[in-house]
């Protein structure tokens, strides 16, 4: 039996791949546990442990995505990734982008194979020959999948990175404008064709369709002001390596909101209120 301590050295990388692939921390934990069980049951020598474990994890994720497709198509309203609380912003620009909520939303628009190749190559730095072996395909196909994924992601990637302190300041100002019901300030902080996605999972009140345009989004926030759960306090914390607005009713987290910035303006807003997706802390 292979030692558990060897597996634990790679747990964070396995979770990182699974979470980015699936957009769900709960499902990612299940994938990592299944990978461990397969590792523990392996009787043959393992020549290179991390590639072996990453291969198992990637293939399990692809299988999970096939079964998840129908569930997500039948989901009540927009499906958004499951937020993960992070104690501090991500350590590097690459890690911050690949973990960010906006990036995970873009990954959802890729095919499972495109997603796997992009992550293994761009985030985890594997060579094409290794990725081809992991995914049981050819190097040429991996290159084509990566080309399509890059084209799609580059089209949605902000032209200039936003410093974390500036990001937090803009988010705080927007949250305050929403709390004050300041229609003019809300609208002024949004790009004209801004989009808002809210995920209630059919369990709490949320917009069942994306809201498009600065005017419509501003009116939405003005309309819901004072209609939510009473006594909710707002805190700014790090979620997926970037600042987010967290709403608490007592100690219970009831929603998470994060934004995508284009310069000093907000281009997309993501609100997760589905209680099954919200962290307990």
UniProtKB/TrEMBL annotation:
Molecular-function GO term, any one: sigma factor activity
Domain RNA polymerase sigma-70 region intervals: 7-69
Residue ranges annotated for the RNA polymerase sigma factor 70 region 4 type domain, each copy included: 102-153
InterPro entries named in the record: ECF_Sigma-70_Domain, NTF2-like_dom_sf, RNA_pol_sigma-70_dom, RNA_pol_sigma-70_ECF, RNA_pol_sigma70_r2, RNA_pol_sigma70_r4_t2, RNA_pol_sigma_r2, RNA_pol_sigma_r3/r4-like
GO BP annotation list: DNA-templated transcription initiation
Gene3D superfamilies xref list: 1.10.1740.10, 3.10.450.50, Winged helix-like DNA-binding domain superfamily/Winged helix DNA-binding domain (1.10.10.10)
PANTHER family: ECF RNA POLYMERASE SIGMA FACTOR SIGJ, SIGMA 19 FACTOR
NCBIfam families in the record: PRK09636.1, sigma70-ECF, SigX4
Subunit structure: Interacts transiently with the RNA polymerase catalytic core formed by RpoA, RpoB, RpoC and RpoZ (2 alpha, 1 beta, 1 beta' and 1 omega subunit) to form the RNA polymerase holoenzyme that can initiate transcription.
Name assigned to this protein: RNA polymerase sigma-70 factor
Organism field: Paludibaculum fermentans
């Amino acid at each position: 039996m292979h030692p558990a301590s060897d597996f634990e050295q790679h747990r964070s990388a396995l979770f990182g791949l699974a979470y980015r692939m699936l957009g769900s921390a709960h499902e990612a934990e299940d994938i990592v546990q299944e990978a461990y069980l397969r590792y523990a049951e392996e009787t043959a020598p393992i020549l290179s442990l991390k590639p072996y474990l990453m291969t198992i994890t990637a293939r399990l994720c692809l299988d999970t995505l096939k079964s998840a497709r129908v569930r997500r198509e039948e989901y009540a309203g927009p499906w958004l990734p499951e937020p993960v609380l992070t104690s501090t912003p991500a350590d590097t620009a690459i890690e911050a982008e690949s973990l960010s909520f906006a990036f995970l939303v873009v990954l959802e628009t890729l095919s499972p194979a495109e997603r796997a190749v992009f992550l293994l190559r761009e985030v985890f730095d594997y060579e094409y020959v290794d990725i081809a072996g992991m995914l049981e395909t050819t190097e040429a196909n991996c290159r084509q999948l990566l080309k399509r994924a890059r084209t799609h992601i580059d089209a949605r990637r902000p032209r200039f990175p936003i410093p974390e302190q500036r990001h937090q300041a803009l988010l705080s100002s927007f949250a305050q404008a929403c709390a004050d019901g300041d229609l003019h300030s809300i609208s002024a902080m949004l790009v004209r064709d801004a989009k808002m996605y809210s995920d209630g999972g059919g369990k709490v009140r949320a917009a069942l369709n994306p809201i498009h345009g600065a005017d419509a989004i501003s009116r939405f926030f003005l309309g819901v002001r004072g209609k939510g759960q009473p006594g909710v306090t707002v805190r700014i914390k790090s979620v997926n390596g970037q600042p987010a607005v967290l709403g608490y009713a007592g100690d219970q987290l009831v929603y998470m909101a994060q934004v995508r910035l284009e310069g000093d303006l907000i281009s997309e807003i993501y609100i997760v209120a589905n209680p099954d997706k919200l962290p307990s802390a």
